[in-house]
């Protein structure tokens, strides 16, 4: 039976890790992986539908804790969301389902593409201004990161913080327990001055949990243009929820891609090598695999378009012909007309005015903004206003 939702420290020597079943879909291999790859972790129980629970004694016990708040049956969410999305007109999917194991790696590949300037631009900003950024927040800082993923850019800020303070508490929140686990271990190896308390959770659940404990001066990070998947209303909701766990004078470093020339934007989401197309089509491959559907990937085409009025790049999957697809797990035949599009992602672009408004509407002030040398991407310091 699913029980432990939050791992409380069980005493100084113990660490409770729950492994995300999505990331370790095969319990036998997960157990083997844990024994072979992570000697400090001993798998003690395998139960239920591929949920693996480990009671572990860790070498870094007091330095690393993961709280797993991820729901136990992630497939139930996918099935329900696919059913709903295919019943809607126009059909649509949620971008969070891009990131299965292959999808996450395709996204890593996207970040290396010449057309996808976002990652490089943000990296350039952080390399150049990390010291200035952390200097603009006073006091002994705790670092909080929403959607930390592989945490490679975070490293630059951690280094800057450790140049100005001897120790650092880092609280990453990410939907993937396995990403948190591996990125945390790597960070702890590089930075002995770090203590990590990670939350495997969606943003809102993670924030609700974090709000329960008081924290000193906090710098929150929301990097990589991760805000771009939120519709305007949801962006407000998210920033207000984040503002609630902060105190006046705490800050948020928000990475936001800027509005620009259509050709540049569309190329970034429709690269010549076809990696973004594969990333998009992988949604169908995932539904085939996990919900026993029979999408023929060759019968769908990747489409990326900048809607200037909405200020967003849209991704779609377009049916090349009239066809019927079965989704076994939903006992659902779905028909597509020729040229019919399923909407798979919005990526909102901002300008500095919009960012100021966003801050003002959510209890922040846009205190400073740093740009890359091509002025394509922005890193914004939102300072929390008086409570
Ligand atoms: C991870 C949401 C920031 O919108 O640029 C990249 C996702 N989609 N290429 C973005 C994405 C297609 C990315 N974010």
**Average pLDDT:** 86
- Overall 3D shape: globular
Radius of gyration, in angstroms, nearest whole number: 21 Å
Elements, N to C (H/E): EHEEEHHHEHEHEHEHEHHEEEEEHEE
The total of beta strands comes to: 16
Bound molecules: N,N,N-trimethyl-histidine
Sheet with most strands: strand arrangement? 4-7-6-5-8-9-16-15
- What share of the residues lie within helices? 25-40%
What amount of the residues lies in strands?
25-35%
Q: Count of helical segments?
A: 11
Model regions low in confidence, pLDDT < 50 over at least 5 residues: 1-60
Q: Return the structural class.
A: alpha/beta
Largest sheet: 8 strands, mixed
Question: Could you describe the 3D structure shown?
Answer:
Residues 1-60 have low confidence and may be disordered. By secondary structure, this protein is an alpha/beta fold. The protein has helices at 27-37, 74-87, 101-110, 118-135, 154-164, 177-190, 203-210, 232-244, 262-268, 275-291, 352-361, and strands spanning 14-19, 45-47, 51-57, 64-68, 142-146, 168-174, 194-200, 218-222, 251-257, 300-307, 312-319, 323-327, 332-336, 341-348, 364-371, 377-384. Bound molecules: N,N,N-trimethyl-histidine. N,N,N-trimethyl-histidine binds at residues 110, 118, 224-226, 228-229, 269, 276, 279, 345, 347.
Offer a few descriptive terms:
387 residues, alpha/beta, 8-stranded mixed beta sheet, 34% helix
Q: What's the short story on this structure?
A:
Helix 4 (118-135) packs parallel to helix 5 (154-164). It is built from 11 helices and 16 strands. It has an 8-stranded mixed sheet with strand order 4-7-6-5-8-9-16-15, sandwiched between helices.
């Amino acid at each position: 039976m699913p029980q432990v939702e939050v791992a409380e420290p069980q005493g100084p020597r113990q660490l409770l890790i729950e492994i995300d079943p999505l990331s370790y879909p095969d319990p036998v291999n997960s157990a083997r992986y844990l024994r072979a790859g992570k000697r400090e972790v001993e798998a003690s129980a395998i139960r239920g539908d591929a949920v693996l629970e480990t009671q572990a004694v860790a070498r870094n016990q007091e330095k690393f804790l993961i709280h797993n708040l991820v729901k136990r049956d992630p497939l139930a969410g996918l099935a329900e969301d696919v059913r709903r999305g295919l019943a809607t007109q126009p059909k649509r999917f949620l971008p969070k389902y891009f990131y299965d194991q292959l999808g996450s790696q395709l996204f890593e590949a996207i970040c290396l593409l010449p057309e996808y300037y976002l990652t490089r631009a943000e990296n350039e900003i952080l390399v150049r201004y990390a010291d200035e950024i952390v200097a603009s927040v006073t006091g002994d800082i705790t670092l909080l990161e929403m959607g930390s993923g592989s945490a490679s850019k975070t490293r630059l800020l951690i280094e800057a913080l450790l140049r100005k303070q001897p120790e650092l508490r880092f609280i990453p929140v990410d939907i993937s327990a396995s990403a948190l686990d591996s990125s945390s271990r790597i960070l702890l190896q590089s930075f002995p001055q770090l203590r990590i308390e990670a939350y495997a959770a969606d943003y809102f659940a993670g924030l609700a949990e974090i709000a329960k404990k008081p924290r000193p001066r906090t710098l929150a990070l929301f990097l990589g243009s991760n805000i771009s998947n939120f519709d305007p209303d949801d962006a407000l909701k998210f920033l207000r929820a984040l503002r609630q766990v902060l105190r006046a004078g705490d800050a948020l470093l928000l990475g936001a891609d800027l509005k620009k020339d259509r050709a540049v934007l569309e190329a970034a989401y429709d690269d010549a090598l076809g990696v973004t197309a594969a990333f998009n089509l992988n949604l169908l491959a995932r539904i085939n695999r996990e919900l026993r559907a029979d999408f023929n990937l060759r019968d769908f085409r990747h489409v990326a378009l900048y809607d200037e009025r909405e200020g967003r790049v849209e991704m779609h999957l377009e049916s090349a012909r009239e066809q019927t697809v079965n989704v076994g797990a939903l006992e659902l035949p779905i028909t597509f007309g020729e040229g019919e599009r399923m909407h798979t992602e919005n990526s909102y672009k901002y300008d500095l005015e919009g960012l100021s408004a966003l801050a003002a509407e959510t209890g922040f002030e846009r205190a400073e903004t740093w740009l890359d040398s091509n002025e394509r991407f922005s890193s914004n310091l939102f300072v929390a206003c008086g409570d």
